[in-house]
Amino acid sequence: MGFDLIALKPKSEEYRRFINNVWGWRPLWAFVTKVCSDLLTEEQINGGHINDGVLINEELALGIARRLKKIIESGFAEHQAGSFQDRKDKVGMITCNACDGTLIHKYTGEPCMICRGTGKVKPMVTAYHFSIENLKEFVKFCENSGGFEIW
Questions:
Q1: What is the reported pTM?
Q2: pLDDT for 56-80, tens place per residue?
Q3: N- to C-terminal Cα distance for the chain?
Q4: Half-sphere exposure (CA, 13 Å, Cβ side) for 24?
Q5: Which are the contacts of 40, defined by CB distance < 8 A and separation ≥ 6?
Q6: 3 forms bridges with which residues in the sheet?
C-alpha cells in the first residue's frame, strides 16, 4: 500500500505527485502532524493516515513547508530521525507468527523461511522509516504543489 499526494496546481510536471509507500509515509505524516498540529484540522490529521483524498489547500501546504524548513534548519528533524532509528534498533525480537516459534511453517509444513529457522523475527513496526531526505522532498512538493489531496 502506498500514499499518492496529487497536486492541485503544480508549478511543474516534477511536482504533480509525491509518492511514498506506507513504511515511509506514516512516520513522515506523524512527524508533520506533530510539528504542525496547530495548522491542521483533526480531519486533516486523521485523513493523512488513510487514502481518502483529504484536502490540503495551497495556503496550508505553504505553511507546512515553512514550518518544516525551520525545523530542518534548527536540527530538530535530524534529532527526531536519529531518535526514531534508535527506538527501532532497541526493539526486541518476537516469536515468528508464521511458525509460532516451532521452526516449521504453520501452513506449508516446511522449515520456516520467514524466521530463517530461528523462531524469532523483528516486529513489523521496524519496517517503518523516517529520513531527512524524504522530509526535504515533501517540503519541495508542498512548496510547488499548489495544494494537494492525499490518496
A1: 0.88
A2: 999 999 999 999 999 999 999 999 9
A3: 11
A4: 14
A5: 32, 33, 60
A6: 20
Angle between helices 22-35 and 58-74 (to 10 degrees): 90
Share of residues in the chain with pLDDT > 70 (%): 100
Model confidence at 150: pLDDT above 90: yes
Q: Is the pLDDT of residue 1 over 80?
A: no
Residue 51 in contact with residue 150, Cβ under 8 Å? Answer: yes
Can you say how many angstroms the Cα of residue 100 is from the centroid of all Cα atoms in its chain? 29
Could you give the CA distance from residue 56 to residue 62 in angstroms, rounded to a whole number? 10
Read off the C-alpha cell for 74.
534548527
Pair 110, 99: CB distance under 8 Å: no
DSSP the chain: -EEEEEESS-SSGGGSEEEEEHHHHHHHHHHHHHHTTTTS-HHHHHHTTTTS-EEEEHHHHHHHHHHHHHHHHHTHHHHHHHHHHHHHHHPPPEE-TTTTTSSB-TTT-SBPTTTTTSSEE--GGGG----HHHHHHHHHHHHHSSEEEE-
**What CA–CA distance (Å, rounded) separates 44 from 75?**
26
